[in-house]
Amino acid sequence: MLNGITLGIVMIFILLLGGFLLTLLINAFLIPLFRTPKEVLDEIIDMMELSKKDHLVDLGSGDGRLLLKVYRNSMCKCTGYDISPIMLIIAQTKMYLQFPFNKDILFKPEDIYSVDLKEFTKIYCYLDQGSMRILKDKFEEFVKRGGQIYSYRYNIENMPKEEKVILKNEVPLYIYK
Fold first, then answer.
1. pTM of the entire structure?
2. Domain that holds residue 137
């Protein structure tokens, strides 16, 4: 026979597991998951020419692989935004394992469409064409202020100063300066 404390612990475990599974299902069906391939990360990071003075934002940062690699190479300030709790947990865990107590790398649970881009010098994104269309006005203003945008696979339609570089995996990286 279960006593009250044991029953409470079992119920908490069941609720946590149910919440975790529900989050996984929501992420799988409602949030598009694009991952920058590992084989081109170094190539992309080299093109960004980041210095310690830069502040890079990754819109839709996912598991944080790009930002962690950027920080390891350039020690610049890095911020990642994602709405997936699972991806944020993975990114935070990887960050704490690789760079414990670091305050220059942040992963934030925020909608990429409402992010204020004023504090950043460079943007990296791997977003679909619809998202790029929605963010176009923000991106144009960001580039006018001197920022740089690096977009894997998808371009910003009718955006001036577009440079297209074909990466070693034959996928384009669009650069706006």
1. 0.83
2. 38-176
Phi-psi region of 170 (alpha: psi -120 to 50; beta: other; left: phi over 0): left
Residues 118 and 171 in one domain: yes
d(CA 12, CA 19): 10
- For 131-147, the pLDDT digits (tens) are 999 999 999 999 999 99
Note whether 92 and 165 are same-domain residues.
Answer: yes
Put the strands of the sheet holding 105-109 in their side by side order. 105-109, 77-82, 55-59, 122-125, 148-152, 172-176, 162-166
In angstroms, the Cα distances linking 21 to 10, 11, 17, 26, 98 are: 16, 15, 6, 9, 27
E-assigned strands of 27-161?
55-59, 77-82, 105-109, 122-125, 148-152
Q: Are residues 109 and 162 in the same domain?
A: yes
Residue 22 tokens, joined: 């529900």
Q: What integer pLDDT is reported at residue 30 of this predicted model?
A: 56
* 119, 152: one domain: yes
- CATH number at 112 reads 3.40.50.150
